[in-house]
Amino acid sequence: MIDKRNEQWAKTRKMGMFSYIVRYGWLMFGGVFFVVSLVSQLLQGADWSVSLIAGRILLGIAAGTIYGWVSWKMNENRFQRDS
Prior knowledge:
This protein is mainly α.
């Protein structure tokens, strides 16, 4: 299992940290965060506005950046330890 995981990470890490953060942090985690937080705000009675959407986009990018960076570091540390 460790060998398979390390093989996959070896391929993934070739894209570089920034591309990883964009793909897995911003687009995947941040995208889900954006949708969930926007729907939550709208269900609480908030009106559609540019500032609401822009704020949710910025929060999604910030949360995605943190998630992507932490995820990269954890995967990289595990890869280095198991190699």
